[in-house]
């Protein structure tokens, strides 16, 4: 764990790119390090998350994270936090969300296909998180990642999975329909601040709406 701390601090120094090549070579190893009282690299992700988020702003960084299977570790980390979100974890939650969104936005360029189990865990956790919050930034972040994640699947496929049921679908419908309702509030400051995420959601809806009839009906009020 001390090695992870040292590398993380070095990368986040004033000249982070000076050590970027070495960090990338060691990424898979660092993501495998577990604390004494954990069965997953939760604390390693905590220290590395700012670096991972910065890496995934670039195509090569996304490829590196995917090849090391680090994206699965970040998804698992985020899902764990969202099961019981607390104020102290919000910065980490949004960093993890940004990291995952960076990957999803570049999915075509990096030939990224999220695994079904990771996708379903993420959809469930994000819908649950947003359901418990009145914060517009939570709503729009959750909806935008779900909008990108739904590119990988369909309503019929989700409902065949043992970890996704009708209640999961209802939460997802509510999340996406709430995000559309928020987007129609005109030019309020809160809406203007989420313009990029609104575009992600509406673009996603146009791609997969026909594969998700329940979400389509919820959004269109059918």
UniProtKB/TrEMBL annotation:
Stored SUPFAM superfamilies: ARM repeat
InterPro entries xrefs: ARM-type_fold (IPR016024), Neurochondrin (IPR008709)
Pfam families: Neurochondrin
Organism superkingdom: Eukaryota
PANTHER family: NEUROCHONDRIN (PTHR13109)
The protein, known as: Neurochondrin
Organism: Linum tenue
